[in-house]
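To assess whether the prediction recovers the assembly geometry, we first specified each molecular entity separately, as shown.
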Amino acid sequence: MKKLLLLGGGHAHVHVLKSMADAPLDGCDVTLVSPYDRQVYSGMLPGWVAGHYSLEDCVLPLPPLAGAATRQGPGDSGRTPKAVPKGFPRHPSGRGNNICFRQTAATHIDAEARRVHCADGSELDFDVLSIDTGTAFDPAAIDGAAEHALLVRPIEQFIARWQAARERLQPDDPVVMVGGGAAGIELLLAMHHALPNCRFALVSAANTLPGTVGPRLARILKARGITLYPATAAQRIFADRIVLTDGREVASACTIVAIGATAGFLIPAPGLARDERGFIETNHFLQSTSHTRIFAAGDCASMAGHPRPRSGVYAVRAGPPLIANIRKALRDEPLAPYTPQTRSLYLISTGNRHAIGSWGSWSWEGSWVWRWKDRIDRAFMTRYTAG
Ligand SMILES: Cc1cc2nc3c(=O)[nH]c(=O)nc-3n(C[C@H](O)[C@H](O)[C@H](O)COP(=O)(O)OP(=O)(O)OC[C@H]3O[C@@H](n4cnc5c(N)ncnc54)[C@H](O)[C@@H]3O)c2cc1C
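The predicted structure of the complete assembly is given in tokenized form:
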């Protein structure tokens, strides 16, 4: 039996799991390690914040997708294994998909010994390892962020803390978003929709929005009465205010931080090749440039020679070539190259069942764009919900 170890239930790995459910890997023990038993689909998160979706609408439960919660081993969290749903594809031999779901976080990768250490004390050996653990924001990047701000990543922590903040916020309270990328602005507009009596502001150091989306979003932010602090950054966050790098102070009863992804919180893996920013470096096979038995995809990885934005679109697209090459690696066959697309469609919701779409330098908007986005997002959830 070969051992395939999957770290993280991210956007690429949900496809890997689905593919194995459709066509199980023969002669292979598979283990999925994830600190949570569900994967939040970030594309629908602003819709949950705005109140258009329930949380259940936006999460993919991982044990049913892995199809083998019943095989949970010792040292796990002790949670009751969830039943494999009726109709979930089974391996013809009756062994199910032979996937063990371990609810814990990987804490250290020993690439040479082919072993992964986990927070629950377990050590997992592998013949092939695939990493899709996303990124996190380094709270040390802004003084006071760890104590006083809601960090958008990890998303599970954001969900819990936003629910608490929402209960606590009173009419007229100032709410400040730090980070003017698509995710930050989408969340800000969703929060404004959910809490129209609060006062909202956006602190944005730079315009990172694709094509002509920036002017459209600027118009919408202005129309909603959201105060803008452009071309400046948060230097220090206190419980009741933010100090900006230009010296101004902004009152804030709730500060949310959605600045760019950093590699600082990736699982330590001495010797595993990294790019200049610290992300796992892969070749065009999605294979580590230093360790041929290790694959990586999604936000945690960078493909040498093919730099792309860190977005769910690219993580999702990496799923099919990733599982194809994992299968080949397990059979010791030559791998197939993959070139990520150079452009992608972005659909950015603006809180009120309205959205902006963009492709390259083109952009458009309307309630029909929101309905289009809603259909795409729900179709994604349906495709990867086992049962
Ligand atoms: C509010 C918001 C809205 C967004 N909207 C869009 C959008 O509309 N379109 C788009 O393309 N992109 C969007 N993005 C970006 C998108 O979320 C990311 O690019 C995408 O999630 C990356 O997918 P991933 O598979 O790399 O990682 P993730 O989706 O972050 O998944 C990583 C997984 O790994 C697990 N994990 C973490 N650490 C460990 C560990 N140590 N051991 C084991 N498992 C671990 C996590 O629990 C998680 O399940 C949005 C982001 C945010 C914050």
